[in-house]
Amino acid sequence: MSDTPRSAVITGASTGIGYACAKALSSAGFTVFAGVRKAADAKRLKAELGERVIPLTMEVTDQASLDKAAEAVRKHLKGHKLSGLVCNAGVAVAGPLLHIDPAEVVRQFDINVIGVLRTVQAFGPLLGADRSLEGPPGRVVMMSSVAGKMGAPFVGPYAASKHALEGLTKSLRKELALYGIGAVIIGPGAVATPIWDKAEEIDVARYGDTDYVPAMKRVMAWMLDRGPKGLPAERIGRRVLHALTAPDPRLRYAEVPQRFENWSLPRLLPEKWVDAMIVKRLGLRPQDRGDG
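-> structure tokens emitted (292 positions)
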């Protein structure tokens, strides 16, 4: 990329992967517009990451807040294009699909998919769709997940939202080619972030009158054990920096701990085999109900 001053917008920058991205990009000389929801987070980011980080209040479910943030970025850039947009904000909704409240799934998609669309529409002109701006076109980095290629039980809404994000990005990449804007997907596996603290908050008891509780408890135990042992968020931040600065980045990066076991092997084996192993391990076969 050229010597033009580099800048990036990051949604969901308060903690975890978003924070690590803000740190990596600002350390590399980017001006980072860090999306936060709370004034306290804005103050903390400024104090911890320095003057290159400019916190902006934005909510991906609120188009008006995104448009306001985009206008603030436009004024700061003074006629130059935005170098990068990192769509990182997201949530994970859990529960068995036979019983989960559809309203929770609507919320999942409103944040993880429609929220991304709103964000791209708000900042797309600054990346280069507005031909009046100066400088090279920017790139979009989409924060997907290993769930964007696989579907684990009891995180169906999350997996579906990430599958949708992958499809959206593939279509968007072709459309943005008109303006020279690139789009890169990053699909992490488990990353050691505060999101795993929320796993303990999942109320398994609400599904107590279903057959899924024993298997759900096994999944939660795995999450609480393996999640905090995942990749450091800083590794994802470095990958985002690469995606925004490499002359010819790949279209998708899988950042997965124990890569062979958790990514390569499941992708090589027939899907029917992988399904059977997971079903057996979690006790999801008919005979595992224990009712004869």
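The chain has one domain: 7-203+230-262.
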